[in-house]
C-alpha cells in the first residue's frame, strides 16, 4: 500500500471542512488557548512559500494544544481594505471589492491546501460592512471619550463637560491640545454650542486638527511614515511632500506612559520591546519659554539639559513651525520661503535619518534669554521636526554634536554668533556631550555644579521667574487617522456648521458608497467627493442624495476614510464572537477568551500595528468593553524565508560598424556570458575577456555578413539580470536556453547568443528577499501538488529556527518527502497494514519516549526545526528495529500530527479509529523508558580498545572485573599474563594495564 499524498490530503481537508473539526466553543470546561497569526492582506499575487512560515508554526502549537486538552481558538480572516486594491481599481476601473473578493478566494484556496486548523466559522473581513460597523462604533466611543491623568484612564466626555459646567478647566489634569486656554465655569456656560464643540475637540481621544502630514500627490492620499521609503511612496515610488491638512487624529500620546509600562507585563522579545520604547521615546527635562524680541510671541522648547541654559547660542525652529511666518523679517522672507518649499519634499523619516546634511536659514528674528536677556538668533532647520516636542530647540553647540556641526557650518554668517562654552572642558574639536565629568562655568548661579545638581537648580530658577517648569516628554505623536482614499472604512460623521457630528450607533454601518472614479475630484477632494449619494438626513436617519443637502436637516458626510490600521486594531476581539450582530463581542465571549495567548507575525509591525492595537485595547479596557489591558500575551516574530534568485549576465560593448548594415531592422542581438566566465572577467582575467571579445565579434560577423568591419569600442559592460526559476534546472543551475527564449518574459532575447562553459550556460545564484520582481518566488501550490502539504509544512520548519531568516532551496525538499514515505512504510507494506499487537522491545520504547520528550520540549520552546530532525532519527531507528508494534506506532501518529496532520489522520484511521486524530491525547513522556539498565563498556588493554561488552549498570567493581576476566576475548588478549592493574569506572571504562 503506497503513500499517495494527493488522495490523503484531499480526503482529510474535506473531512475537516465538512465536520467543522477545528471550531472552537465560547463556553467550555476545558482551559482556553488563543493562538493568532497577524492579519494577512490578500494581494493579487497570492501566497509564496515564505508566507506560510508563521502560519505553520502557529498551527503546530494550535494542534498540540488541542491534543493537550485545550479549547483552542485559531481563527483566520483578511485585512481587506487598503491601497493596493484601490490602485488596481484606478488603473483598470474594476471595483476594489471585486479585486479583493477574488484575491481572498485565491488565498483561501491556498491556505486550505496547506491544511491549517483554522476555525473558518469565525472568518472576518475588514471590508465587510458587518465588520466595519464595529470599527465605526469604536471610533464613536473614542470621540465620546477623553483621557484623565488623575484617574489614569479614558472616561466619557460627558464627565468632562460636567466638570467644565461646575469648575471650568483650570484644575483639570487631562490630555488635550497645547493651545487650550483657561476658562471659568461661567465662561463655559456662556459659550455657544459651536464654541463648546470646538473646545471639546481639543480634549477628545479622536479629534479634528490641522496636522503636518505626508502627502503623496500622485496617489492623492496621506501616507503613514512606514508607507514611505527613501522619500517616495512604498507603493509606486511616487514623491511625497509635507503639507498641512485638517485631519482626524487619535490621541495615542495620552497612553504613552501606559504603553511603556505595559511592556514589562508581556512576553515579547527584548528587541521588539526596545523598538517600542524608542518609538515612544520618554524624556525627562524641562519646558522653557523664550520671548521673541519686539513681539508678543514666545518660543517654547523642551530640553533634557536645562543645566545648559547659559550655553544657548542660537535657536532652531522646524520649517513648519507656526511661528516661522510670523517672526521672519522682510529681509529674510524669500530665503525662508524657498527653504520651506524645499524641505516639504523630504519625509520626516529622511530628515531624522540624515545626520550628515546640514541646512538651515536665519529668520532674522531674535529671542531673549530668560535669565540674561541677551538676544538669541532664531533659525529654521530641517533637523528639527514640528511633530516632536514643540518643534523648536534651544541650540547649545558646546554640548550637542548636531548643534555644534550646525554652528560651525554657518560660522561667520549673519545670525550665527560664536559658540558659548559652559563646560570646564575643551570643545575646540568637538562638542562635550557627556552628562558627567564636568563642572559648569560661565553659567551664573549654576557655576560649579554638575549635571544632576545643575538640572535641579535650573528648573527651580526657571519656575521662579515663570519661564519654565519640569516636564516629561514623549516622542510618540498622535496618529493621523484620515486617508484620502476610497477603499477604506467610512467615518460615521456628518458636518453641521463645519463641526463633526457622530451618527447614532443604532444606524451603523454607514456603508461605502458607489463612485464612478476612484481618484480625487478635480477640486482636490478625496475620492468620496465623487459620490452622488453621500449626505446624512437627520430626520430619516439615512444616507441620501447630495442634492438634498440643505444644512438644515440634511448635511454632508465625511469624505475621508479610515486608515488601513483601523480594522486591524481590534480584530482579535471580533474573532471571539464573529457572528454577533448586536455588539462587537459579547461580554461572556470576551471574559472567556480574555486575550491572545500566542501571536505570531513579522517584526515590521513593531511600531505600527502593535502600538495601535495596544492603544485601542487599553482604551476599550478603560471604557469597560475589554477585560484585559494588553491584547497579546506572547509574541514571536518569525524570520523571513529568502528566495534563491537566479541571474543571467548580459555582456556588450559599443560597436563600430561599417558597410551595408541595417541595424534598424536587424538590431544587434543580445549576448549572455555564463557564470564562471563572468566571474573571471570581473576579477580582471585578460584571457577570459579576450575569449569573450572574440566570440562576440565572430557571432556578429555571422549576424551581419555585409559588414566591412566590426570593432569593439570602449570597455566591456556586463549587467546581471534576474531570470525566472522556471527556465533553469534548480539542482544543476543550468539554463534551459530554448525555454528561456520561448518564455514570454524574454521575447527580446529570441536571437540571443550564449557564451557557455563546458557546453552549458550556468546561471548565478544569490539569496535575496522572495519577491515577484526578482522572479524567485516559489508557489506553495506547486510544492503541495508534487510533494504534499505535509512535506511543505515539515520542510519549512526544518529550514532553521523560526525567528531566523533562511534561504529556500527546493532541492532539499525531496529528503523530507522521502522521510514521510519511510514513516508510511513503518505501518504498511505492499499488501496493506502490518501493525501488530506484540509487546515492543525496550529499544523501541526508548526511541519513542526519547522522541516524545524532545518534541514536547521543542513545541513548548518553539524550536520546531529540531523536532523534525528528531522525527527523522526516530523513524530511522524504528525501521532498524523492525518495529511494527501498535504500542509504538499509535502514539507516534499522534506525536507527528501537529506537524504533518494529513498523514497522521490517515494513519489513525487505518489503525482502526473513527473520527479525527485532532483531539486525541498527546503522548506523555515516561522517564523509566530512558533509564539505562545496561551499559556497553569499551574494554581496553594498555589504553587501546579491543572489544566491547554489555553489562548491567548495577554491578559492583568486583563483579565487573570477574566477568571481564572470565571472558574468552580477555584471555586471548592476555595470553596467560596477569595484568598489573585493572581500572574500572562503573558506567564508563574498563582498562587492563600490563
UniProtKB/TrEMBL annotation:
Residues 844-956 form the Methionyl/Valyl/Leucyl/Isoleucyl-tRNA synthetase anticodon-binding domain. It is found in: Cytoplasm. This is Leucine--tRNA ligase. Its EC number is 6.1.1.4. It comes from Flavobacterium fontis. One of its GO terms (molecular function) is ATP binding. A motif ('KMSKS' region) lies at residues 769-773. The gene is leuS. One of its GO terms (cellular component) is cytosol. Residues 277-462 form the Leucyl-tRNA synthetase editing domain.
